[in-house]
Amino acid sequence: MLHSQLDHGPESRRHKIQDRTAVEMNPQDARERGLAEAEVVEVYNDRGRCLAGVRLNPDLRPGVVQLPTGSWYDPLQPGHVGTLDKHGHPNVLTSDRPTSHLAQGPTAHTCLVEVRRWQGPVPPVTAHEPPVLRQSAPPARPGAPAPQPGVSPQR
Fold first, then answer.
1. Mean of pLDDT values over 21-36
2. Segment 37-59, tens digit of pLDDT
3. How far apart are CA 126 and CA 87, in angstroms?
4. Which helix (H) or strand (E) holds 23?
């Protein structure tokens, strides 16, 4: 899979849990938080928060979770800083501080997070839906008067 380019494709979706990216965690950590396999959780820190589906992995070190990159950003409230990402996009959790002024690459994608059960209805993932297009007025005919707001054109 080419990072997020094919997030909408069947191979990527096959690995999702309730349409969300899977966050892997050690069963001991899940037990301590009262979490179960395939449950929707909120992964959060002081930078942001996202929803993900729990995948238990006994090979993962306790105290560590793994949330892969690749899911498309899907904000609950588009345009609002700090809104919840519904899809499991890890960039809402990591720093966007560059490695240097020369390279401007991202720093390591590691950060401290906490995981808790999502409370309430799980919002639908809408990242793969096409955008709503606004209908614009047809172009004016050459020489026609400009339309007046609130006035219907005569036919």
1. 98
2. 999 999 999 999 999 999 999 99
3. 8
4. strand 22-25
Q: Which residues pair with 20 in a beta bridge?
A: 17
DSSP strand pairing (49-56 vs 22-25): parallel
pTM of structure: 0.80
Structure tokens at 130: 């096409």
Q: Answer yes or no: are the C-beta atoms of 153 and 140 closer than 8 Å.
A: no
DSSP 121: P
**How far apart, in whole angstroms, are the C-alpha atoms of residue 72 and residue 85?**
9
Rounded CA-CA distance 8/45 in Å is: 27
Q: Which residues of 109-142 are buried (b: 16+ CB within 10 A; e: fewer)?
A: eeeebebeebeeeeeebebeeeeeeeeeeeeeee
**DSSP-derived secondary structure letter, 11:** H
Asked if 17 contacts 38 with a C-beta cutoff of 8 angstroms, the reply is yes
Complete DSSP assignment for 37-98: TT-EEEEE-SS-EEEEEEEE-TTSPTT-EE--S-PPP-BSSTT-TTPPBSS--GGGTS---B
Amino acid at position 41, single letter:
V
